[in-house]
From TrEMBL, chain A:
InterPro entries: Actin, ATPase_NBD. It comes from Cephus cinctus. Coiled coil: none annotated. This is Actin-related protein 6. The keyword Ribosomal protein does not apply. Keywords: Cytoplasm, Cytoskeleton, Nucleus.
Automatic annotation (TrEMBL), chain B:
This is Zinc finger HIT domain-containing protein 1. Residues 118-150 form the HIT-type domain. Residues 1-37 are annotated as: Disordered. SUPFAM superfamilies: HIT/MYND zinc finger-like (SSF144232). It comes from the Eukaryota. It comes from Cephus cinctus. Residues 1-22 have a biased composition (Basic and acidic residues). One of its GO terms (biological process) is chromatin remodeling. Gene3D superfamilies: 3.30.60.190. Pfam families: zf-HIT (PF04438). PANTHER family: ZINC FINGER HIT DOMAIN CONTAINING PROTEIN 1. GO terms for cellular component: nucleus. The keyword Disulfide bond does not apply. Keywords: Metal-binding, Zinc, Zinc-finger.
């Protein structure tokens, strides 16, 4: 068996795809419609061909982090496996596909059926994205026996403790705050305070990525943000794209209004990512990430605590906010038992970290015992998948 | 002599005050809005798409060209696996009662008290609007709040 595999980290917003011999491609996992192009829906990365991305309309296969709209997903997968993206002969190599934690049984079954019967896969491996991240981490840090993966994505944030490479199911915590909620909240407050942008998810999501950061001392930054512009190091203007001369907005020092349309961002810049740490700020009565890490820790046996605390890995798009790692470290340090040392790692690219883990896993000699082949599926049906995959 | 009290509280008795249920309803609506994919209508909704129009871009079906088996359409899978999120959660409740499961993984409420921010400017707030329960930080923000959001859009 050749050891080339196809890895599909099927995120709710971005699918990370590619052959295990190449590097991953990021494909938006959705269909988008633009006002400017009346006839054509854009599937996945085709959106790059769209000249005017204002007022984009999104059709997503995922709802609340779970695959619900199969027709959309099928269209996007067809696009991903087509020549346009990542043409691959799935009947000759294993396919790795990620699923969310506690994925519902009927979704799991539908997925297995589609891949074996529609895409004619030779064999598949279904795994949680955090499982791949854990594999990646242990591969790079062979001495680490345990780790806590924090996966903060588009739909929600999961905290998953792994002991000896096996997830502790009782310790999994889900916080219902993800990138989508942050973007929607930013849209809402900008629309109320400055300019109506409720239809501009695409643009405001970029504004969020370009301007938000995680505060290290929230109330101090709040006080700083109250200052007048001349002595306020936080306030910035975000120049909005006009799609004639400017395709992507950017952040700049505050200026008097000129010809370009701008948003004045002040406390919004750090109050938005703050929701990850205090979901109750928007009325979601759940603990934030640092508290959830400690809560998850307490579900594991006490002898694993020092190992878990020393290996906290931050993955997912929200880990890209500047200051995220330092803040998590600071808060976990103050909540965790003082005799244990705490270490938090933010990989260089937290978005593709799981995918890269799949790349490493594809070379593992134990792989053949982890996958389910088409023959096995035809012989034993769905049962073999439940037996072999721990979703 | 009558007890001294603030003018703000005296006025409050004449105003309409939202009850707890209405406030909860508002809160739930706000949270639902944060889950929405789009806030506007499909820009292509008014187009009558004709299926017979040839598509000149390279077709997605080219993948299956060399094979005998006909690929099933996206529509087939829509019909085949039609289940809403609510249905899935309910199914899970019936079949997988013992934790750990989807419901048990949800993060619990914090042991720290909620923080409060002005509904207008976003800075920390110390005051609560009497009619609707929103937070505000200054009389200036209260004025904006009363003019824009307070009891508007309330059924």
């Amino acid at each position: 068996m050749s050891n080339v595999s196809f890895i599909l980290d099927n995120g709710a917003c971005t699918a990370k795809v590619g052959l295990s011999t190449a590097s991953p491609k990021l494909v938006p996992n959705c269909i988008m419609k633009a006002k400017s192009e009346r006839r054509r829906p854009f599937v996945g990365s085709q959106i790059e061909e769209c000249r005017d991305a204002s007022g984009l309309f999104y059709i997503l296969p995922f709802q609340k982090g779970y695959l619900i709209n199969w027709d959309i997903q099928k269209t996007v997968w067809d696009y991903i496996f087509s020549k346009e993206q990542c043409s691959a002969n799935l009947s000759q190599m294993p396919l790795f596909i990620t699923e969310p934690h506690f994925n519902f049984p009927s979704i799991q079954e539908a997925m297995t059926e589609i891949f074996f019967e529609e895409y004619d896969c030779q064999s598949i491996l279904k795994i949680n994205a955090s499982g791949l991240s854990c594999y990646h981490y242990r591969n790079k840090n062979p001495t680490a026996k345990c780790c806590i993966i924090v996966d903060s994505g588009y739909s929600f944030t999961h905290i998953i403790p792994y002991v000896n490479g096996v997830k502790v199911k009782d310790g999994i915590r889900r916080i219902d705050v993800g990138g989508k909620l942050l973007t929607n909240h930013l849209k809402e407050i900008i629309s109320y305070r400055q300019l109506h942008v409720m239809d501009e998810t695409y643009v405001i999501n970029q504004a969020k990525e370009d301007s938000c950061f995680v505060s290290q001392d929230f109330y101090k930054d709040m006080n700083t943000a109250k200052n007048k512009l001349e002595i306020n190091p936080i306030a910035r203007d975000y120049v909005l794209p006009d799609y004639t001369s400017l395709r992507r907005g950017f952040l700049r020092q505050p200026e008097a209004p000129g010809e370009q349309q701008t948003l004045r961002l002040n406390n919004e810049r750090f109050a938005i990512p703050e929701i990850l740490f205090h979901p109750s700020d928007v009325g979601i009565h759940q603990i934030g990430i640092p508290e959830a890490i400690v809560d998850s820790l307490k579900a594991c046996s006490e002898e694993t605590w020092p190992h878990l605390l020393a290996n906290i890995v931050l993955t997912g798009g929200n880990a890209k906010f500047p200051g995220f790692r330092d803040r998590v470290l600071k808060e976990v340090r103050s909540l965790a038992p003082s005799q244990y040392s705490v270490n938090v790692v933010r990989p260089e690219d937290p978005i593709t970290y799981a995918w890269e883990g799949g790349k490493l896993l594809s070379r593992d000699s134990r792989l053949s015992s982890m996958i389910v082949t088409k023959e096995e599926y035809e012989e034993e049906g769905q049962a073999i998948c439940y037996e072999r995959f721990d979703i | 002599m009558a007890a001294r009290e603030s003018g703000r509280i005296k006025d409050a008795y004449q105003k309409r005050v939202l009850d707890e249920a209405a406030r909860k309803r508002r809160q739930r609506k706000a949270l639902e809005a944060l889950e929405q994919d789009n806030f506007h209508d499909d820009p292509h909704a008014d187009l009558v798409m004709s299926k017979k129009v040839p598509k000149f871009q390279e077709s997605l079906d080219s993948r299956g060209a060399g094979r005998k088996k006909k690929t099933k359409s996206a529509e087939y899978y829509k019909q085949r696996f039609r289940k809403t999120f609510a249905q899935l959660v309910e199914e899970e409740l019936n079949f997988n009662r013992t934790p750990p499961n989807y419901a048990s993984a949800q993060a619990p409420a914090s042991r720290f008290p909620d923080r409060h921010f002005c509904a207008v400017c976003g800075f920390p707030s110390n005051y609560t609007c009497i009619p609707c329960g929103a937070r505000y930080c200054s009389t200036k923000c209260l004025g904006t709040h009363l003019d824009t959001r307070c009891l508007k859009w309330t059924a």
